[in-house]
Amino acid sequence: MMTGIIWFVQIAHYPLFEKIPKEGFVAYENCNTTRTAWVVAPIMLVEIGTALALILSGYRIAYNPLYLIALGCLLLIWLSTLLVQIPLHGILSLRADPRTMDLLVLGNWIRTLLWSLRLALLGILLDIGKIF
Question: What is the pTM of this model?
């Protein structure tokens, strides 16, 4: 789910920030972050929770190098979210700043590519699971 959402955000949602009039941007951004959090936070929490639960379960696929790389991608996504995206949204919640908007789009490529790689790796693992 998050791979689809992040591609939508990267290609459509974030680039449209520059089209919002400056006088209404802060109100828009504050509403946007609240509403977006209601959609993505539960999905992200389920994703990290199930990823870690699989490790703790001792199920053998959780120790496959491809799974561990996918888990590493997820941890990097969380780091990027906490250290890049959230602080940039914090700036935008105070003022419409074109440079910050550009950094938001640029920085979000990290998450977009990592979620895409994670999806590909998990897809490969699902296919391997059918064989074994």
Answer: 0.91
Whole-Å CA distances, 26 to 34, 78, 90, 106: 12, 25, 10, 20
pLDDT digits (tens, 9 = 90+) for 15-29: 999 999 999 999 999
Identity of the amino acid at 3: T
Domain ranges for the chain: 23-126
The secondary structure element, H or E, covering residue 85 is none
Neighbours of 105 (CB within 10 A): 19
CA-to-CA distance for 41 and 125, rounded, in angstroms? 25
- Tokens representing 24? 């209404």
Looking at the chain, list the stretches that DSSP marks H as alpha helix, in order from N- to C-terminal side: 2-8, 22-57, 65-80, 86-92, 98-131
